[in-house]
Write a structure and sequence with these properties.
This protein is of the alpha/beta class and 279 residues long. The chain is built from 9 helices and 10 strands. The protein binds 3,4-dihydroxybenzoic acid and fe (iii) ion. Fe (iii) ion (FE) binds next to loops.
Length: 279
């Protein structure tokens, strides 16, 4: 059976792509952010994942407001990035792990999640930049399964439901008939709001409490909040923490924190990073 080697949760901000393209990793603005990834590289060298299951949200590249699935799973042989209008270079395509994709689709439908299966799927900055941060040479050593959450157009799935989906994904990975080493990744957050009266809103106290909760005895702490409460506490785009919750849920009951970093701001975002291992 497949083995979950760990999980990485990280923010995703298009400006990271521009910083990488310009080689600004040691620039004073960017250094505290990029330095957070050195321990991730060391951990990846030991954990040696073969496959990454990625919880992320699309921002209008693959799904637009006319068709918006709540949860969707990629089942493609390969996934391409494309221009989203942020002016960042496209990254090389990703190879899909189709056997795991279909195994997850079957398991999730059986577990009563009405997911959309996507045999073609473009992946945006929320998917590509965390990979570029983990593997800076962009020679992806892993196959991927994208799992996309709607965090863009209301109504959004509740935190509780995202947690439960993460739990089911974890169960399904552990039941997958394969000797692959699987990593889970969640991208988005932490607190940020890009538009409206509260543009620029950041809530450090909440972010730190949330990160701490993921390694506590009550890792589903944030599921007590409604989506509106999460927006109030973290900003309209801060709800992207839903993907962190699914990542944590997939890892099982007990985890060990391998690494964490938190830095304000990267663009308009409180940038968080965690590496967790199941125990
Ligand atoms: C920013 C953050 C995001 O999560 C995103 O998807 C786009 C932009 C930002 O802070 O600039
Ligand atoms: Fe985002």
């Amino acid at each position: 059976m497949a083995h979950i080697v760990g999980g990485i949760a990280t923010s995703h901000v298009p400006a990271i792509g521009r910083a990488i393209a310009k080689g600004l990793q040691n620039d004073p603005y960017w250094k505290p952010f990029f330095d957070g990834f050195a321990p991730v590289h060391n951990w990846l060298a030991e954990a040696r994942p073969d496959v990454v299951v990625v919880f992320y949200n699309d921002h209008g590249l693959n799904f637009f407001l006319d068709k918006m699935p709540t949860f969707s799973v990629g089942t493609a042989a390969s996934y391409r990035n494309a221009d989203e209008g942020w002016g960042i270079p496209e990254v090389p395509p990703f190879t899909g792990e189709q056997d795991l994709s279909w195994h997850l689709v079957n398991h999730l439908i059986e577990a009563e999640f009405d997911i959309t299966t996507c045999q073609e799927m473009l992946v945006d900055h929320a998917f590509t930049l965390p990979h570029a941060l983990c593997w800076p040479d962009q020679k992806w050593p892993v196959k991927v399964v994208p799992i996309c959450f709607n965090t863009v157009q209301f109504p959004l799935p509740t935190a509780k439901r995202c947690w439960r989906l993460g739990e089911e994904v974890g169960k399904a990975i552990r039941a997958w008939d394969s000797d692959a080493r699987v990593m889970v990744m969640g991208t988005g957050g932490l607190s940020h709001q890009l538009d409206g009266e509260r543009a620029g809103f950041i809530n450090k106290d909440f972010d730190l409490a949330f990160m701490e909760s993921l390694v506590s005895q009550k890792p589903d702490w944030a599921t007590q909040f409604s989506i509106n409460e999460l927006v109030e506490k973290t900003g309209t785009q801060g709800v992207e923490l839903l993907m962190w919750l699914a990542t944590r849920a997939a890892l099982g009951e007990q985890v060990k924190q391998v690494h964490a970093n938190y830095h304000i701001p990267i663009s308009n975002t409180a940038a968080g990073l965690m590496v967790l291992e199941p125990r």
